[in-house]
Amino acid sequence: MSAVYKAVISAADKVVPRGLRPLWEHPAGPKTIFFWAPAFKWGLVIAGIGDITRPAEKISISQCSALAATGIVWSRYSLVIIPKNWSLFSVNVFVGATNIYHLVRAFIYQQEQKKALENGSISDITSSEVCVTTISFKTSIHLKTSLILMILCLMVQCRVEIARTRFFKMKKIFSNRNLSLELRMQMLKCYVLPILLSGMEA
């Protein structure tokens, strides 16, 4: 498979116009896996758009929460890595946006069902309808839990990036062999680890 891929890229390399060369030769361009992996992820976006016609009561809260979190986290990650991967960024923005839209639809539906029950506008509630309502309340709780986990994930990623930035700013000091290893470790514990581990005591 690798040989076939290299042969195709080699053949295409000869016919790429000069104006498209910067994109073609980009470290995250079509000649690398960093371009094609996000390209296949557009399938999730197409599936999400297709679910717009799906009834709100049939939306999977857990699935949409996971995909929304994935889209948000990887959108941020794609702009932090070197080189920046704009293909990865764009597809994850759409993945996050489509699934956040579905989560909003599901939340609105659950709130409408709750109000209808409280106002007594739903008559002759059967046991199956009660079961559906109970499930909707459980999924509402699950939605809140998923959102909390998503926020925590973003906070952790943000803290890692801040610690990473601080580390690279002090990289010359940490790699200075004129300083003892013990001193460098103490400086690492003093200036980098507190940023990374802040709040972990809880």
UniProtKB/TrEMBL annotation:
Pfam families: MPC (PF03650)
Membrane topology, record value: Multi-pass membrane protein
Annotated InterPro entries: MPC
Record GO cellular component, one term: mitochondrial inner membrane
Keyword Transmembrane helix: yes
Domain of life: Eukaryota
UniProt keywords, alphabetically: Membrane, Mitochondrion, Mitochondrion inner membrane, Transmembrane, Transmembrane helix, Transport
Keyword Membrane: yes
Subcellular location: Mitochondrion inner membrane
GO biological process, one term: pyruvate import into mitochondria
Entry similarity comment: Belongs to the mitochondrial pyruvate carrier (MPC) (TC 2.A.105) family.
Biological function: Mediates the uptake of pyruvate into mitochondria.
Protein name: Mitochondrial pyruvate carrier
Lineage of producing organism: Eukaryota, Metazoa, Ecdysozoa, Arthropoda, Hexapoda
